[in-house]
Design goal:
Number of helices: 10
Strand order of the largest sheet: 11-12-10-9-7-13-14-15
Low-confidence stretches: 1-7, 499-540
Largest sheet: 8 strands, mixed
Structural class: alpha+beta
Radius of gyration: 52 Å
Strand content: 15-25%
Shape: rod-shaped
Oligomer: single chain
Length: 540
């Protein structure tokens, strides 16, 4: 294979380079387009679609008009030929009063009786020369185009009549040549009818040029109206953007004003809801950092202070400092464990629900709670229902309430647990006979590091009830307390029941009491039967 001198075959590498260049150019166009403001892009697309619509409709109309115009010209020429034939067959020569016998006279008579349309002309030929021309009122002078005259003269010897398109240096014609020959004629004649098709198209082009100018004006109007309309529609988004730009990590109080009920208004409402959640999350985070810093700083200070002051030569002092340090480190570990639990509470997989027998769960929790302290542990009621919940998390929350009951009640007092399903709600509770909670402390005890005024730091991290609240809220429920100072407290966990629940009981069972945490006396209230038991055999 050879190549012409001065040319080089395209290598695959060069083709790949060209393709890569085209892709880079396209990528640059896409990037530049994406960098434009939304308002500009929307208006540009609106104007572009309007232009495409006008172009398609105009091109379709132009094609239909041009086709229709061509048919009209051909129909006009066809009718003229038919009238000429009728005149030749049935017409009377005005000069003789007899039927036509001279072709040249027939052409003259036909031209006198024919009124050419706009952009139409006619000629008469005899023996290859022009014999008759149209009147001076006819604008199209066919005799002034030599190429057309030669073409018509060449048709004198033809026996066929056909409409043809003739293109000359001057213009393009749609023409028909009708040759005529009588037996006694000395020379044949021909009648030429022709339309200036280019002039006809010129009129059509002028019409659609006006259409194009009007369309361009429409595009300008659409662009201006679209710019104003889109700007009005995007005004809430600009407010949203300016509000978002003014919001900082230290000030989340700004909100987007909401007006109307359209999609943009819904977006503003959603944005405000997001800001509410962010403000709550940041506030909780700051509160958590402040509280954790305070709670961890205290045991660290205690350990550091005792270590600095201890007498390394005094074995008793070393043992005492060691016990204090271990106690504070245990407190720190419990605090960290509680914080990890709270951190997990925001995850979707914090709870893993499954159908659970609430009656069995209640008795299990009572058995696990009895070793928490030497109290009289009683079962108020066990709901005989099956509910979808996370048994492990609910047990954790329930035992936390039981642990609180032990902390704030006297040894030998009664602590009761129970569960009951009623009116679409599953209620779990822990009831004690402890010191109670003051009315002003009831809200704060459920907050992070919240403690009542009658509690001390040694009694816990202050996260227990907050963890209970997180577990219950993850189940879609709520936690509450009823309490009176010096009488006791009852903590309630209310969980929603989904759908019909089998086994709702109207009555309460007999109360089972368990005395002591290290072993005691189990008896069924209302029954004459009694026996002794040991914790290893179960506690409920």
């Amino acid at each position: 294979m050879t190549t012409p001198p001065g040319t080089h075959p395209a290598s695959p590498a060069r083709e790949q380079s060209r393709a890569g260049g085209r892709l880079r150019t396209l990528g640059a166009l896409v990037t530049n387009w994406s960098a434009l403001p939304v308002r500009t892009r929307v208006v540009a697309l609106l104007v572009f679609l309007t232009a495409v619509a006008l172009l398609l409709s105009g091109a379709t109309a132009y094609a239909l008009q041009r086709s229709g115009m061509a048919r009209q010209v051909d129909d006009s020429l066809t009718r003229s030929v038919q009238e000429f034939r009728i005149l030749a067959q049935e017409g009377i020569d005005p000069a003789t009063g007899e039927p036509f016998s001279a072709s040249d006279q027939l052409v003259f008579t036909a031209m006198q009786r024919t009124l050419p349309a706009q952009h139409e002309g006619m000629l008469g030929f005899q023996d290859g020369e022009i014999s008759w021309t149209a009147s001076s009122a006819v604008e199209l002078r066919l005799e002034s185009d030599p190429e057309l005259v030669r073409w018509a003269a060449d048709q004198l010897g033809s026996d066929q009549v056909a409409i043809q398109t003739i293109t000359t240096a001057q213009t393009t014609y749609r023409a028909v040549a009708v040759p005529i020959h009588f037996d006694n004629d000395s020379a044949p004649s021909l009648m030429l009818l022709a339309y200036d098709f280019s002039a006809e198209l010129g009129d059509l082009d002028s019409t659609f040029l006006t259409y194009g100018l009007v369309g361009f004006g429409v595009m300008i109007v659409v662009g201006v109206a679209g710019w104003l309309l889109v700007g009005r529609l995007l005004h809430p988004l600009r407010i949203l953007q300016s509000t978002a730009a003014e919001i900082s990590g230290t000030d989340l109080r700004r909100r987007v004003p909401v007006s109307g009920q359209d999609d943009v208004a819904e977006l503003a409402e959603t944005f405000n809801e997001m800001l509410d959640r962010l403000q709550g999350a940041f506030s909780s985070q700051r509160q958590l950092l402040d509280d954790v810093g305070h709670e961890l700083r205290t045991p660290i200070t205690i350990v550091q202070g005792h270590l600095e002051l201890q007498d390394a030569e005094d074995a008793a002092d070393v043992r005492e400092v060691r016990e204090i340090a271990l106690d504070e480190l245990d407190r720190m570990r419990l605090l960290v464990d509680d914080l990890v639990t709270l951190a997990k509470s925001g995850r979707p997989d914090f709870v893993d629900t499954e159908p659970t027998d609430v009656g069995t769960l209640t008795r299990d929790v009572l058995g696990k709670a009895s070793p928490l302290g030497p109290r009289i542990w009683t079962l108020d009621h066990a709901a005989d229902v099956t509910v979808s919940l996370d048994a492990q998390r609910i047990t954790q929350a329930w035992l936390q309430l039981a642990s609180n009951a032990v902390k704030y009640s006297e040894e030998g007092s009664k602590v009761s647990l129970g569960s009951q399903a009623l009116s679409g709600t599953l209620r779990l509770w822990v009831r004690d006979q402890g010191i109670g909670i003051r009315p002003e402390d009831r809200e704060g005890i459920f907050e992070r590091f919240g403690r009542g005024s009658n509690s001390t730091r040694a009694e816990g991290s202050g996260l227990g009830l907050n963890i209970v609240t997180a577990i219950v809220q993850a189940h879609g429920g709520s936690v509450d307390v009823q309490s009176a100072p010096g009488i006791g407290s009852t903590f309630y966990i209310d969980l929603p029941l989904d759908g019909p629940v089998d086994g709702l009981l109207d009555g309460l069972p007999d109360v089972t009491e368990l005395d002591g945490a290290d072993g005691g006396h189990l008896r069924q209230v209302g029954s004459p039967v009694s026996k002794t038991s040991h914790p290893k055999d179960g506690a409920a």
